[in-house]
Write a structure and sequence with these properties.
Blueprint (H helix, E strand, L loop, with lengths): L1 H16 L2 E9 L10 E4 L5 E3 L5 E7 L2 E8 L6 E8 L4 E2 L2 E3 L4
Parallel strand pairs: 1-7, 1-8
Antiparallel strand pairs: 1-4, 2-3, 2-5, 5-6
């Protein structure tokens, strides 16, 4: 039994090592100012992040693979980036939102 427990914990730690981070910044397309409180979602999941006071967002503990991100903000057009290939290294995706007025 002890051997089984060991191999299970090794598998769990190797799975954790494979997880990655996705982060970025959201700015106004016209003024290049950072936007606070922009909702960034990973389509097809329940993952949601909001930009902080520096316009930055991040997602932790994501499995490497292909993702689709959408940024939405009141009075701005939604922006979607498709086929984002996450690698085990850090991944950055920035958005530039256009005012809808």
């Amino acid at each position: 039994m002890a051997a089984n427990k060991e191999s299970k914990s090794e598998n769990a730690s190797s799975n954790t090592a494979a997880l990655t981070q996705l982060y970025g910044e959201v700015i106004d397309k016209n003024t290049n100012e950072t936007l606070v409180g922009v909702k960034v979602t990973i389509d097809g999941t329940n993952e949601v992040a909001y930009t902080d006071f520096d316009g930055k967002y991040s997602f932790d503990n994501l499995k490497p693979g292909k993702y689709k991100l959408t940024a939405s903000y009141i009075s701005y057009e939604n922006s979607t980036v498709e086929n984002i290939q996450l690698t085990p290294k850090a991944n950055e995706v920035d958005f530039s939102l256009k005012n809808s007025n």
